[in-house]
Amino acid sequence: MTTLAPRATLPPVAARPAAAAQAEAVRVGAGLTLAAALVLVTSWWLRDGGLGAVVDLGSALTALGQLSGLAGSVLLLAQVLLMARLPVLERAFGQDRLAGLHRLVGFTSFSLVMVHVVTVTWGYAAGSLTATPGMLWTLTWDYPGMLLAAGGTACLVMVVVTSIRAARRRLRYESWHLLHLYAYLGVGLALPHQLWTGQQLTTSPARTVFWWTAWALAAAAVVGWRVLLPLARNLRHRLRVTSVVAEAPGVWSVYLTGRRLDLLRAEPGQFLLWRFLGGPGRSRAHPYSLSAAPDGRSLRITVAAAGDDSSRVAALRPGSRVLVEGPYGRLTPRAREARKVAFIGAGVGMAPLRALAEGMAFAPGEAVYVERYRATPLFAAEVDVLARERGLQVLRLPGARRTPDSWLPVLTRPVDDATALRGWVPDIAERDVYVCGPPGWSALVRSSLAAAGVPEQRLHIEEFGW
User: Fold this and answer.
1) How many angstroms separate the CA atoms of 352 and 265, rounded?
2) Which positions, given as ranges, span the membrane (predicted)?
3) pLDDT digits (tens, 9 = 90+) for 194-252
4) Segment (H or E) for 351
5) Do 349 and 434 meet the contact criterion of CB atoms below 8 Å apart?
6) For residue 465, what is the DSSP state?
7) What is the mean pLDDT of residues 426-435?
8) DSSP letter at 409?
9) Mean pLDDT to the nearest integer, 93-118
């Protein structure tokens, strides 16, 4: 018989907007802090001459190179913090929004760094294009820290090139993730150059304190949240596989247990980075969502075969050790603002939604569960129990998409997606909506929800993509 975690106590409605307001305050504060840092370094550049120091092409190029270098340095630090898995940012932004910011800040900082390299070299060559290659060689070999900076730039180039969508499609997730970690090396190699030869960074005690403090905090965040915290959690919890169960063709659930899992503080809907030590691929981390509400004694994830490593979970043996990082993500009850909710997912994207439907508090009729699948629904028996015992309303939509620009299967009436959704869930605009599925499919769902009147702040999306 299928058993479920104890029903959560329904929280007062007033508590939910408070959590949303706190998250919004963090988002606004983070944006203002970044803007203030950019204004500060720009003011230092102006104080050192700025545009007033421009007398010819060479000085103009050098001035532009100095400004782009300062702004690029600030954004590189912001990029490091976005990669550091800081809980305060994870809770406020959510993983998808952080990933979008990470991509935007990453490409912008890289562009500024490249502008800095080109314009400073060209400016030091007195604006002569023919003398620029020789000046680049001189700067690289004769100036302190510049050879390391060249290596760091090469690392950043590799990371940016492999982050372009066309390149990502040609790489396995495992390879892309490993290459992406070279961003830390790239930023670290740039540090000596900036502190040894960057005059705008060290010409006053205030500037020296600012830059050293900023770099030290960024490094501490990475070491603390990406290294020490996962190490401490794994030593404490000692996770092990208890069993692997086939859910559907090419889809398996992995059941795990460990010590004091209540202290992991995982929430329904969150994901962790998993390393299974029982076979090949143990060095690579994979993001898998919880597919059952954590009960403090065990965890469950559900994995679809999407590559060599994900397929290997079927061969895991009971007792296999597991290392984790996390939990991460804002696809949780914490993001909820409205009393009524809707869960909309496709394929293995139902995993976190299944956990939310179990672990979230709602009265009968207040939650609707919409599942898109081709042939076999996931967790059908468990969802039926939730419908029977908790009053979860279930809508199953089998079959292939009716058209490439629709997220729905063939319908009996030729209506658009938003109209069909409103027909099934007339009050969809009054609900918090949780969406999980492939990126392109999720984008179509987002458009339908917007057309149906769902406010952006009540739309919570996690995409199964990278």
Assistant:
1) 16
2) 25-46, 66-84, 104-125, 145-167, 179-197, 209-229
3) 766 666 666 778 888 888 888 889 889 989 998 999 999 999 999 999 999 999 888 99
4) helix 350-359
5) no
6) -
7) 95
8) B
9) 85
Q: How far is CA 130 from CA 135, 136, 433, in A?
A: 10, 11, 59
Reported confidence tier of residue 4, pLDDT bands at 50, 70, 90:
very low
Average pLDDT rounded to a whole number, residues 77-97 = 84
Question: What is residue 321's DSSP assignment?
Answer: B
Q: Which residue has the tokens 């057309």?
A: 451
265: left (phi over 0), alpha (psi -120 to 50) or beta: left
* 305/137 Cα distance (integer angstroms): 49
| 201 burial via Cβ count (<10 Å: 0-12, 13-18, 19+) | buried
> For residue 449, how far is the Cα from the chain centroid?
22
Q: Report the DSSP pairing between strands 341-346 and 367-373.
A: parallel
Structure-token pair, residue 337: 């603002």
CA distance 100 to 94: 10
Place of tokens 């504060």: 29
The residue among 353, 405, 359, 407 whose CA lies nearest residue 377 is 353
Q: Looking at per-residue confidence, does 189 or 404 come out higher? A: 404
The pTM of this model reads: 0.81
Please tell me whether residue 408 adopts helix, strand or coil conformation: coil
Q: Strands, DSSP E only, in 347-401?
A: 367-373, 393-398
What does the angle CA 291 – CA 82 – CA 308 come to, to the nearest 5 degrees?
A: 45
Alpha carbon distance 372, 216 (integer Å): 47
The pLDDT assigned to 123 comes to 86
- Distance CA(95)–CA(343), nearest Å, equals 18
pLDDT, residue 149, reads 75
Domains of the chain: 15-232 (no CATH), 238-328 (2.40.30.10), 333-463 (3.40.50.80)
Helices (H), 11-94: 15-47, 57-83, 87-93
| Percentage of residues in the chain having pLDDT higher than 70 | 87
- Return the higher-pLDDT residue of 398 and 204: 398
Answer whether the bond into residue 327 is a cis peptide, omega within 30°: yes
CA dihedral 321, 325, 328, 334 (to 10 degrees): 70
- The pLDDT value recorded for residue 47 is 86
